[in-house]
């Protein structure tokens, strides 16, 4: 029996050193060691010659030898099958797969275009924090705590006394600019803002704005109108029609909302423009004297205008997007449509 055990050890060493680089060699291994007339089966046949008192011991040795040979075969089969499959399916002479090129988000495209247009008019870009205090967001903009207009800008408060909140408009950036800089001031303020609104196809709890501010001597409403006329024609084309409607904002007086002819129906009337032929795109007006006084700017010497627009609304008209939620859902099918607009 000792001779048989020694033979098994020699066979295990032989099996361990066996190498295969093809399916044919792997099959030859199977036939030699694991076939119906193979070495493993012949060794197993020696069990009948083992004394009864040692059958249990020798049976364990034989089972280990069989498992060892089968494991080696599985290893050889897996390695040779993988190499055969790889060599059969991969043509190394072919060029590599193209690397996908991303695109800018549609809101980034529109924001950058808005910024570019106003830069050509001499406006600088100003930015500020998204977490703002009550004074810069409301108080400085002529919105005291008991002002009913605050209800239109219901927002998310971080904590109160003192109040800190997620800004509701980028007017807070204008406030910080007027706090540090004296006229002449000519800035635009792009950024994300937040309001506690129900998410739907027409509204979201966050959106993006671009606001503008121009303060200097002898600034008039005519300057405001010509600035916005230029913007609309550069953004939407020379044929778009424009109208101003009287409105109310606490931080401007007089105030007006600006509409353009609906680009979806050409002014004929549709669901987007509520069958009026006009779509509101921004609010504007002359800076309220109280706002100027809040920052030590003499309202008898200086005047100014301000305006604010939602980037989503401009993008909706420019690209005819019918659901505001598409901008923030990260749907690759939606975003791929803007690849050519990079």
From TrEMBL:
It is found in: Cytoplasm. Binds 2 magnesium ions per tetramer. It comes from the Bacteria. Its main location: cytoplasm. Residues 110-337 form the Aminoacyl-transfer RNA synthetases class-II family profile domain. It catalyses: tRNA(Phe) + L-phenylalanine + ATP = L-phenylalanyl-tRNA(Phe) + AMP + diphosphate + H(+). Its EC number is 6.1.1.20. SUPFAM superfamilies: Class II aaRS and biotin synthetases, tRNA-binding arm. InterPro entries: aa-tRNA-synth_II (IPR006195), aa-tRNA-synth_II/BPL/LPL (IPR045864), Phe-tRNA-synth_IIc_asu (IPR004529), Phe-tRNA_ligase_II_N (IPR004188), Phe_tRNA_ligase_alpha1_bac (IPR022911), Phenylalanyl-tRNA_Synthase (IPR002319), tRNA-bd_arm (IPR010978). GO terms for molecular function: phenylalanine-tRNA ligase activity. Keywords: Aminoacyl-tRNA synthetase, ATP-binding, Coiled coil, Cytoplasm, Ligase, Magnesium, Metal-binding, Nucleotide-binding, Protein biosynthesis. It is an enzyme of class 6 (ligase). Its cofactor is Mg(2+). Belongs to the class-II aminoacyl-tRNA synthetase family. Phe-tRNA synthetase alpha subunit type 1 subfamily. This is Phenylalanine--tRNA ligase alpha subunit.
